[in-house]
Design brief:
By secondary structure, this protein is mainly alpha-helical. The chain contains 8 helices and no strands.
Amino acid sequence: MSDLEKALRYPLGGEGWGTKLAIGGVLYILGSLLGFIPWVGWIFSILLAFIPLGYAYLVFRNYLHGSEGPLPAWGGWGELFTRGLSVFFVSLGYWIIPAILYWLGKILWESGGVAAFLGVLFLILGIGVGLVAFFFLPMALAFYGREEESFGAAFRWSGIVEKIWLVQRDYFIGWVASLIFSLALLLIRVYFLYVGWVLYALGIFYLSLAAAYFFGRVCRVSMEGR
């Protein structure tokens, strides 16, 4: 059984896996519903998402440190929220530049004329930089988790590139698979109303757990130099 296949099976194994998976999915669904509250809904939506994000990071951190096992029990909600918030800030450091580029491109595109041409360039650049950020993020979180959760470690570019190179094949496979599954879930959310939102919420949590398992193991191998 390949490592990717093991990762896809991981969230579906162990005692009580269905309940554990459902809790994360429900939290994402509730976050989506809160997002419909005028003006402030998006704030509550993001805050609630930190909890399942922290849970996925806990799985990632366990495997990164060699503590392998089934899905952990839900508990320590405050700690999960804090860990999710930390992961959010690390991710924000990688996503802020492509997000700004994409936002500028969208504004220019909607302006029309010559500005629309520049808008296309910014949109393409934003997507390209975003894919690069998505590629480096798992190893960045590994550096963050290995070095006493220091934010500075998550942006140690030379070390991150070096460690990715040691496991380049497996790392690239995980990145491509994560990208494909993410796009598939996004299409489900867009084209299937209501049911699509539920499937997306469950799917994105399932994907985060599978990716946490896969990259936790791959990054540990790289960190140990094998």
